[in-house]
Amino acid sequence: MIDGLLQAVPSVGPLTWVLIGAVAYTIAAYWLDAEGYLPESISVSGPITTIHTRRGRAFLNWLAGPKRFWRAWTNVGLGATLVVMVGMFFMLLQQGRSILENPPAPSPVNEPSNVLVIPGVNEFLPLSVAPEIIAGLLIGLVVHEGGHGLLCRVGDIDVESMGLVSFAVIPIGAFVEPDEESQRTANRGARARMFAAGVTNNYAVTILAFALLLGPVVGSISVASGAAVGGVLPGSAADDAGIDAGDRIEMVDGQAIADGGDLEAYLANSTEESVSVTLGDGTETTVERSLLVTRLSAGSPFDRENDAGVDVNDTITAVNGTEVRTERGFREAVSGRETVSITTDDGETTTAPMGVVSRATSPALPGIGGDAADHPLNASGFPTDDSFTLLSIAGQRTLTPADVTAALDRKAIGEDVEVVAVVDGERRTETVTLVKDYRDGREGSYLGISPVSGYSGVGMSSLGVDYYPAAEFLAMLTGEGQSLLGATLVVLLLPFIGAVGGAQYNFAGFVAANRNFYEVTGPLEPLGGGVFLLANLLFWTGWINLNLAFFNCIPAYPLDGGRILRACVEAVVSRLPIEDKHTATRAVTTSVGLAMLACLLLVVFGPQYLK
């Protein structure tokens, strides 16, 4: 009975627990404040707590000594901040407009809980790197607000107090509280530099962190040999053999494996139905191979909308009545027939043509006039808008896209070739005249066929694992082949690059899920696993500081961008023949701020409520 009641209770998500904790914290904090247990330096406003201190002002006065250097430093930062401010303004306007006109489907990327930089609540920020994320956040907050305080003293603006802001017990900000009267009497240049100082320091920390990360740290990390197992498909041969995500396959049947491609090539040519696998930790296991269907491409003749079709996660047991358990066995069983019967482990048998699922390339061929009627397939009677199953070209059987390329190799422009395909369930044989290949950098003849997927769109694996792109992520971290802007964008996207379509997996640093795929071999090898900890700290410090800088450049009060906007508007309005300059300034800054707030709300909540 108790178990039944517990199962009936709905699961509580991380965000709900955060809200419950915030309410409990607020009640406790108000009670402590009412009873006089909290010192005057701590103030509570709901779950937001601020801690004020007057200490450190003497240090700021000392640090502000070389005023000419600090003015020059923040003048450079102010220029960069103005450029980013303008970019953020137009980017948010465009994003808000796009969401209003065509709201995107809800996805993990635009889930409101994933806007919060809270490990465990934000699904892209794992708890395993929470210390590094919090450290990066604290560094960003300290240098940001420290910059404001430093430039206050450089501009002869008094500082009332400094401190930290927390959401319950989680630090979310820091602050420097300038003296209001002193700030009003300071010149606009001093105030603008003071507002830009925090963002400037965040840029500096980002550059330093990424320079260290992409230089000596990542230079000491290399990809370990072996096939990196990112995931294991349920019911696959690897699953049955006890292989898990995070394992690394180093050897198969005594043969060393360099990477996932090497393993796939070995399995594609092996006829052994049972193979011995050695993992990176020395564990040996035996895999009893079986053909798991991993993919059905659009247009596959085996994809049926009824119970007789082949489905993903089915296991192929026989082809044309002959048992098959390997990729090579499947290829040999289907190579001699245009139509084959596939039997799956649920006892169903599906008969369909076996070839390459194909489509015609774009009918507009620049090299031959751009007229759809001139497309070689269209001219011969094949469809140019629907997929079909290609069986052979010039008498050569086509089972894979590589077979299509081989069949057309060395064919001359103007040569006629016989093309056999199944179109809308009907076998058709047509003679197609090859044309000149119009594509850039290509020479030779062109048929106009774009292979989509081999083996009639049925993807299969006798092992059943997904490979983790360890080498690709390491290359992204180093900025290999990227411009500075491109490398920056890639780094910003890495924590959720899998969700935005850039990769199959996200990269949150060198964590438990992927650390087995890397090893320390460079100049920092004596540090051992500490290199991974250092890499995570630098990665998240740079990532958070860059995001803090960009966010604070939004031209909306009370962000730094909003304060800089006000200073700029005041400078412009002061030169205009307007009597009420204060009202004009407030009208401009308020309008821009409200527009930015509306766009931010659309970005965070629009996909959930407008779709």
Automatic annotation (TrEMBL):
The biological process GO terms on file are: membrane protein intracellular domain proteolysis
PDZ domain location:
221-257, 264-325
Enumerate the InterPro entries for this protein.
Answer: MBTPS2 (IPR001193), PDZ (IPR001478), PDZ_6 (IPR041489), PDZ_sf (IPR036034), Peptidase_M50 (IPR008915)
> Where would you say this protein principally sits, based on its record?
membrane
Can you list the GO cellular component terms from the UniProt entry?
cytoplasm; endomembrane system; membrane
Q: Where in the cell is it found?
A: Endomembrane system
What is the top-level taxon of the source organism?
A: Archaea
Sorted alphabetically, which Pfam families does this protein's record hold?
Answer: PDZ_6 (PF17820), Peptidase_M50 (PF02163)
Q: What SUPFAM superfamilies does the entry give?
A: PDZ domain-like (SSF50156)
UniProt keyword annotation of Nucleotide-binding present: no
Q: Tell me the keywords, alphabetical order.
A: Hydrolase, Membrane, Protease, Transmembrane, Transmembrane helix
Q: How does it sit in the membrane?
A: Multi-pass membrane protein
Q: Locate the transmembrane regions by residue number.
A: 12-32, 72-93, 484-507, 527-546, 584-605
| GO molecular function terms listed in the Swiss-Prot or TrEMBL record | metalloendopeptidase activity
**Keyword Nucleotide-binding tagged:** no
Q: What is the recorded name of this protein? A: Membrane-associated protease RseP (Regulator of RpoE activity)
- Protein source organism: Halolamina salifodinae
